[in-house]
Amino acid sequence: FSPDNMGLLDPATSDGRVIFFLPWEKMTIAGTTDSPTDVTSHPIPTEEDINFILNEVRNYLSVDVEVRRGDVLAAWSGIRPLVTDPSSKDTQSISRNHVVSISQSGLVTIAGGKWTTYRAMAQDAVDAAIRAHGLKAGSSKTIGLQLQGAEDWSPTLYIRLVQDYGLESEVAQHLASTYGDKAFEVAKIAQVTGKRWPIVGKRLVSEFPYIEAEVVYGVKEYARTAVDIISRRTRLAFLNVQAAEEAPPRIVEIMGKELNWSEQKRKEELEAAKKFLYFEMGYKVKSDQLADSSEISLLPSDIERYKKRFHMFDKEKKGFITILDVQRVLESISVQIAENTLHDILNEVDLNKNGQVELNEFLQV
Question: Catalyzes what (predicted)?
Answer without folding.
Answer: a quinone + sn-glycerol 3-phosphate = dihydroxyacetone phosphate + a quinol
